[in-house]
Amino acid sequence: MSAPADRRRPTDADHDDETRLDRATSRAVRRRSLALLGNLLRPHARTLSWAAVLVTASTAAQVSGPWLVSLAIDDALPALPDDIAPLAAVGVAYLAAAVLAGVTIGAYRRVAARIAQSVLLELRRRVFRQTQRLSLEFHESYTSGRIISRQTSDLEALRELLDGGLVGVISSILVMLFTAVGLTILDPLSGLVLVSGLVPAWFLVRWFQKHSQVAYREQRTWSARLIVKFVETMTGMRAVQAFNRESTTERDFDRIGEAYRDANLRIFGINGRFAPGLLLIGNMTVVVALAAGGWRVLTGSLAVGVLVAVLLYVKRFFAPIQQIGMFYNAFQSAAAALEKVSGLLAEEPTVVEPVEPVDLPVPRGRLQLDHVRFAYGDGPVVLPDLDLTIPAGQTVALVGTTGAGKSTIAKLVTRFYDATSGRVLVDGVNIRDIASPVLRRNVVMVTQEAYLFSGSVAENIALGRPDATREEIEAAARAVGAHEFVTNLPDGYDTEVNKRGGRVSAGQRQLLSFARAFLADPTVLVLDEATSSLDLPGERLVQRGLQTLLADRTAIIIAHRLSTVEIADRVLVLAHGAIVEDGSPDELVSRGGRFAAMHGAWQDSLV
Ligand SMILES: Nc1ncnc2c1ncn2[C@@H]1O[C@H](COP(=O)(O)OP(=O)(O)OP(=O)(O)O)[C@@H](O)[C@H]1O
């Protein structure tokens, strides 16, 4: 019943830093974005049809203009002054067409804008939901800056497309289509002239597409890199300043900024040739239509009114191409953005929910790692073959050199990652078979960073159990020894953390996260102990809080302080992913191995 071992495969999201994709990948990426677009538009099918009716009516009304002009010149004017009725009829028809075109285009724009805005909102929601849904493995390889750029600049590019032009361009394309048809019906020969003008225009558009696609991908990639660099530097500002990295990061930032500028300049270069090129082709076609039509008027085979209508049509036909050309920029960048967003949305969590979850009726907290082997992705093996049983209620301290695999064990027990092979069991149940809400309730991880969200102290503690009452929150804080300092904060439990006055020290932060875990009351607690050295009273306070937190539950502590190890029932010494020593702290000290050496060094440091 266990879900199959599912190592993270390289997916399309991994390609999104590349600007030149091979043909097959490019096609797959395009298909994926189109599928996403279709999926987003499907709920609006009815509104879309209504928008289509409106825009078609408006276009038909607009395109009737030149034809009415030709009627006025060729039929209505010659009837004057004897018969004014034809001219009046044409005038009224022209006015009616103009009003109809205006009213319907206005309605179309409003309807289309509503669809565009709901599509954007839905996309924003999906990106956010997806980033929360994906496993830790994804987040550890896909930098937060890249996710931010998906949520900001990529969605912004889509917004620009939808807000600034798509709606107008759809109606422009229709105008072109109707104009071409109207012109061909009015005068087929001029229709041919128009088609001959389309040939060079087509080549120019193809040239533009080819070059601008690469240029736009490049632009988005550099823009994302710029954001990544910025976010990385800002979030790591302490390290940047502590290690004097300002000039290096500045150099890197400049280099990326310059590459971004160059990518933008390349786009301007391409556009700078495209727009005037199209204008030239359009004007040349008008000239040819005028010359050919003028000659035919002279020979009497074409009416003047028809020639005027032909010229109006040809001119109108090319005007939108230019708009479409300019719009193509926004379209390209939005298409590239959609490719990236759809890549992110196509990612599947590597930690898969069980199809038929098994319940944990009375959780006791017996933990087993049964021949667990683990490697991050295709990387080297971190845990070759780990076999370990922790009876319910035992406090185990994991010690060992850095990189030995301690945090990896914590991530496997809490199922942030799945073992490459072997099983992790809680009370005899494979954790792959436990629904994640049940698992998260029973197995809680307290990390080093003891992250506090913006909000009050009470709200931060209540994260452990959102339905907890104020009394329960305070009781939890009292139990781990956090109550005293909280009541000394400006607004007590209602103090906003992360704001002036609400700043808490590293030790206090830890106590708050202990209170949070105490309130959650999990069966198994995994604790990545903070390495930050607390002062002695602070350490004693945390130590006492920790003891209360650990009582009556299974606990794995990644111990960085030997004072913490002393409160453990059992110590596991880890080296290169294998347990090399296992026993109570006293046993290990008397056995005289690695732990005894560490312990001796610690004792010496105390005197
Ligand atoms: N997300 C990751 N992707 C790839 N490799 C990783 C990842 N996290 C850890 N590793 C590698 O796995 C090995 C074990 O790391 P782990 O964090 O479990 O060690 P640790 O014993 O907890 O070390 P420390 O005491 O320094 O925290 C290391 O070689 C590390 O480079």
UniProtKB/TrEMBL annotation:
Membrane topology, record value: Multi-pass membrane protein
Superkingdom assignment: Bacteria
Keyword Transmembrane helix: yes
Transmembrane segments: 50-73, 85-108, 161-183, 189-208, 274-291, 297-314
Name used for this protein in its record: ABC transporter ATP-binding protein
The keyword Magnesium appears for this protein: no
Positions of region (Disordered): 1-24
Every ABC transmembrane type-1 domain range: 50-333
Pfam families per UniProt: ABC_membrane (PF00664), ABC_tran (PF00005)
Keyword terms: ATP-binding, Membrane, Nucleotide-binding, Transmembrane, Transmembrane helix
Cell location: Cell membrane
Signal peptide limits: none
Domain ABC transporter intervals: 367-601
Gene Ontology MF terms in the entry: ATP binding
